[in-house]
Design goal:
11 strands, three-stranded mixed sheet, alpha/beta, six-stranded mixed sheet
Length: 260
């Protein structure tokens, strides 16, 4: 069983964000939560999706990308869900789901799923740039926390154990899970071929070919990457998505393609 968690920090949504949220509602109408700063007005989200539940956290975690990364490495973010759910799908509002077959990934013997990084990235717990990173860094190909699936038990075990030291990690949180997904004996990231079946971010055309022209569960990074490619994949799905009106599709596609 799994919870869907959508981190939010603003009171309003763009047309493209509305579309992505409605697509998520269409595919996974139950067990969806907003993760929001305490005190934020959430009317714009609840009006679109009245059944959304809400978990609130210290507003300081939503002040910047750096503080958000700290939230994703805080056991207190996962503990409220772990007593009820085995899995958590993180779905930021620049992610879009192509289909709803999440269960097949939950049956696999891995603890973390995210889009592939092409090219692979170098990460290290305490070194983040320069010659030493090239010399001592670990090359990782699976990360991307913006659309990611995490098994809650092993995630909490990793974050509260004595070896990983998440409080000392200062780079992006997905690099932490990518690194320990290779280094840990108990926490396992999925391999690159499985990651490509889970999600796309950068270089989706190459990943689509790698998948035998089969769509993954979803994508992350709208509208940052390959806008035309994604728009062509999304448009036919949107016409079949409950609650998505034609004017919202056109406005969203124009925004995605930079034609506003």
């Amino acid at each position: 069983n799994f919870a869907i968690v959508v981190p939010v920090y603003r009171t309003e949504l763009s047309p493209l964000e509305k579309l992505c949220l409605l697509r998520l509602r269409h595919l996974f109408p139950a067990n969806a939560y907003l993760a929001a700063p305490r005190g934020l007005c959430l009317d714009a989200y609840i009006n679109l999706w009245p059944e959304l539940r809400v978990k609130v956290f210290d507003p300081a975690y939503f002040a910047s990308v750096k503080t958000y990364n700290k939230l994703m490495l805080d056991p207190g973010f996962y503990q409220p869900f772990a007593c009820t759910y085995e899995w958590m799908l993180i779905h930021q509002l620049d992610a879009f789901l192509f289909h709803g077959d999440l269960g097949s990934f939950c049956e696999m013997p891995f603890d973390y799923f995210g889009a592939p990084w092409l090219p692979a990235q170098l990460v290290h717990p305490f070194i983040h740039k320069g010659y030493l990173l090239k010399l001592l860094g670990t090359r990782v190909s699976v990360g991307n926390g913006g659309l990611s699936l995490r098994r809650l038990g092993p995630t909490l075990e990793l974050l509260t154990g004595v070896h990983a030291k998440p409080q000392r990690w200062t780079a992006n949180e997905d690099g932490f899970f990518a690194y320990w997904g290779l280094k840990s004996r108990k926490f396992r990231s999925c391999p690159l071929d499985v990651a490509a079946r889970f999600a796309f971010e950068a270089q989706p055309e190459a990943l689509y070919a790698l998948n035998g022209n089969t769509l993954p569960l979803g994508c992350h990074g709208l509208p940052k990457y390959s806008q035309k490619f994604y728009a062509e994949l999304m448009r036919p799905l949107l016409a079949q998505t409950e609650g998505v009106e034609s004017h919202l599709i056109e406005t969203s596609m124009a925004s995605l393609l930079g034609k506003e």
